[in-house]
Amino acid sequence: MACINPSFPKPLFSAPLRHHLRRGMALWSMKKDPSLERALSRNRRWIVNNQIKHLLLRSPTRSLPVKFLQKKYKTLDMRGSALNWLNKYPCCFQTFPDPSGETEDLFFGFTKRMAELVEGEEAAIEASEPDMVTRLGKLLSLSRDRRLNVAKLNVLKRSFGFPDDYLFRLVPKRPDLFRVINRYGRHNTMEIELVEWDPQLATSAVELSATKNGQEPHFTCSLPSSWMQSHKRFEEFNSRSPYISPYVSNQMDEEKRTVAMVHELLSLTLWKKLSILKLEHFKREFGLPEQLNRLLLHHPCIFYVSNRYKIYTVVLREGYYGSDLVEKDPVVVAKERLGELMQEGLHEYNQRRKVLNLEKKRKRGEIELRKNSQEETNDVATLDKVERREERERFYKVLFDDR
């Protein structure tokens, strides 16, 4: 059998096909916005720990065996030891023996600080139920048939701020507005339907802003004035016809209505962003075009398209000031506090690990003992910076998955 050099793997595609793929990828190109790129990385950072948090919340005792998490590790696309992962976040998770004493298994649960923040997040979600009702009503009003497939909506529920049990939270409380139907009797054909059209729900963010400012509804450009060509194209687009509400069927200017539709969908999300590939699953429901990516790239004044870590995302520019959201939902504030605690825990773990590694090297004679304590501190800080970067590169492929 021929020996294949692992350093030079055989190309998966022929040269003409690779050229075609590169041309296709070029369609996603957009000048990078460092501020929005930072915002995207910050919002996606702690997906794995959020999934572990949800596993604990589903447990009545809010504790689980570590070996249970190890079995779930493959579904989280993680490798290695689950216990090692938990130890990386000492501010968030703690391990302890089986509370019942029946087994010798090691269990894990929230720390006191983490439990307090989780309770705060749950309180924020409960307080935002009226807003969730409004968002769900608007989504159904935007859809072509005034109904959405539950399985498909679940793919984007996090983006719109819906918890796992949103159907049980919202539908029974508002039977005048929502109902669950299943026209075909299969599990994956369950739909949530808008019972009655509400004109108050059928008002877009652009129209609300225009009414507030006493103006005619129109799009706004969020690019600097130095982008003269983009501004010129935007003004031509904005002035060629009046604003078209996405809640109204209009065949006069399909492009303008599609831009209004995507703008409204992004306005309804907590982080003013959506995965383009997931959004394309709703082409029929929201009347989106086949070449949605091209349309978004034609409107850089309104949208920012990022391919950070090969996850194609569209961001509503006006929703951000620099890398910060202009308006933060209380649920977003609660989740950011959880993210800060996770970061603190990871930093604490890394700091201890670097000190131990430095001590081992000293004992082996690889590093001379220094009398100057300031020099010692600098060594620890340098190692901390390098290994933190290596660790992030190793785990971000999972952490940046928008699930």
From TrEMBL:
Identify the domain of life: Eukaryota
Pfam families reported in the protein's UniProt record: PORR
Instruction: Return one GO MF term.
Output: hydrolase activity
- Please tell me whether the keyword Ligase is annotated for this protein: no
Keyword annotations of the record: Hydrolase
Give a yes or no for keyword Secreted in this entry: no
Ranges for the PORR domain?
31-346
Q: Give the protein name, as stated in the record.
A: Ubiquitin carboxyl-terminal hydrolase family protein
